[in-house]
Amino acid sequence: TKYVIKDIQWTTGEDFTVERGKEQIEELISTWEVHESWLHWSEFLQEEELKDSKRYHYRVCWSMPTRRKPIPRATASIYFVIEISKIKPATSPVEVFFTLESSRLIHRPEQCRFREKWLKDIIENKLILMER
């Protein structure tokens, strides 16, 4: 069976606020297939002024606490950018992309299926480094 990539209806440039961006990132995350034991929190990092657009940077930090280890030894971060064009009409939807911690690959929510394995790999790699 063919997998359908779940995306959300992103806000327009004119309706965008920093808080609305954070809410929409949470809305997107709610469509991802991750086990309920994963916990996350998100934060706004900074606003970046470019020639043709404005970018808003966010971080979502993931961990998997357990009863035995309620404070996780490592976390995995996903960095989101919401971009508002200064060229396109203000009624156009914002552009959204994200990168995984320790990766340069840019993902677009409407073009990729999020993999829980990505979070596991980041944390496993950190734990291996700590043990060395």
TrEMBL record:
One of its GO terms (cellular component) is cAMP-dependent protein kinase complex. Pfam families: AKAP28 (PF14469). It comes from Oreotrochilus melanogaster. One of its GO terms (molecular function) is protein kinase A regulatory subunit binding. This is AKA14 protein.
